[in-house]
Amino acid sequence: MAFLFYKITRIFNLPINQWVSVGFVALFGALILPISASAQLCSCASPPSVQASDAGTELAGTGTFSLSWDLHHIGNLYDGSDFLSDDDLERSAQNLQFSLNYGLTDRISTTVSWNYVEQKLITSQTKEASGFGDLSVLGKYQLHAPNFGAQYDLSIGAGVGIPTGDAYKRQNSILLQPDLQPGSGVWSGILWGYFHQTFLPATNWNLLATVLYQFNDDYQRFPGADTDYHPGNQLFARLGTAWKHDSELQLFFMSRFRHATRHKVDGNEIFASGGSYLLGEAGVSVPVLSMLVLRVSGRIPVWQHVNGTQPATSWGVTAGISYQFQLSDRFSF
Amino acid sequence: MKILPYITIAAGLFLFSCSDDSTSVDNGGTNSGSEDWSINPNEVVGGGPGIDGIPSLDDPHTEPISESDLDDETEVVAVRFGEDVAAYPVYILDWHEMVNDVVGGEPVCISYCPLTGTEVGWDRTVNGEITTFGVSGLLYRNNLIPYDRSTRSYYSQMLMQGIHGEKKDESLSIIPTVRTTIGVLREHYPQTRVLTERTGYARNYRSYPYGNYRTDNSYFIFPVKNKPIKSGDLQAKDRVLGYLNDGEPFYTPLEGETVQRVLRDDSIYIWMNSDFNTYSSFKMSDEINLQASDQPFPSVVSDSVGNHYDIFGYSTEEGSDLKIDTHPSMISYFFAWYDMYPSTTEK
How much is the ipTM here? Predict the structure, then answer.
């Protein structure tokens, strides 16, 4: 991590003492305020891996701490785009997700995410496993800040997924399958984009779009066997609109798209893995105190195309709280 | 600003309260621990769907072969008890792996592992009671691990014995199966009943669930511990007929230009015919000395006194109730047979 920060300081030619502070904030976020990452639920229908990607950049010295709970349920069996059954098996994942989004400058922010995950597979018996998932660190740069003439916020970013979660959990001495492991086992690269447009004073409706691409490395899934396992790369895209009441209450309606490539074993694609998924989401966020916001949403599948025959999402709900804060000027640049 | 520390503390407390990373299972009473396995549990992997995630067929629906619209080339696993002949199409077994059935009054379980290409049948009687077998969702060296729903013991299909639980190290009571085709049964065994797609489960049976797994010799989903040393022209996914002779493993390649091949060992007689896509093996003894039948199919072997027998070991003489024992054997991908029995030799 220190080496990474050192390289960044060289690339941007910034004073080293500022980046010591950057590292401190990132480590603080990682160790004390853990957040989200990728806990796989199933090869085909995992929850969004970096929910903190939904947020844009912060102003210098300000930040948002988010704590959210997500329940993701998988129970529909599909063959390609054809629905087959909804009673063969049941999977669920609960994520307690932590994220810290902090503005280092008015244009540069960092987001650190971690989660605690509980995975459950219910057939004629129930298997479950839980633990901390992977850590993700994302750097964000604001290309355009909204102003009266051009009310849009455009940001891009890049980051890394760090395999902090356990990917080798066993049960009765038997190694569990990847979709029950809290961690993915792989390092991953993350590319990110964010767009937010308001139309004031004409309307309180606004437009939001985010995109995130996560590309994974390989790992040795089976201890003692020389077998490279590659979890499929994933593209997340989110497009929707929100309506903001004068009381700051917001209603939002989003479409969530996810595309996952097939997993690979020693370079060979696993046929029944990966696919494309489109979900519809509706929710509300309510300010409860001046800096505290509650958020609740639900989502259901609109369309999916899985590779081969696979289970797919039947529904999901998320509830969260976020707290906006401002640190002293010493923590901004 | 003052609320942030409280949120941090609350989150920290929650994390500590749930930081006992846990893994649990409702295992229905099956004991856990590596000492309870007769094989190395490090070589056992979860296939993904979980126990019964691949549903066994416990009330299989069959129809007379005369009413079946399956092509003659459709490959099946067949079982015969008396005049009752049952056929289980491999393309349905790909999706269910286990069929709990009754054939000729006998409670049988027909198992098929798509990843090793092996079929094994056995008696469903466990501790004197008839039970059913299911798919545990686990694999040992790529091979299916069934479990019985009476003692919840786990078995290795290819080893044909218990590997975990009460029935550990106990051999399954094997029921002879024959790999053949709908065409052979339709012509020579018109009494055959065939498993249908009316399974009670919604599946796209006409699509193969593992992509190009059957033909791609470099495609393995799980580790192969003992990779075969190149043996002639055999590739990993070529099929062999594997069998044990006094515990010693042998295999005979099925691929190639073989039309009919007979292997006559001291105690085993292997009959295979690639024109019929049919393979069977028989036990021999001092009293039963077999040779190739000079009668037309379905007679395949004859004994020293001139009795002729079919692929199931039943006499082909009209009205005769003579029967010879078949010897347990299984069709297998070459890599799978070698991985399970690395000391195997070719016959």
Answer: 0.81
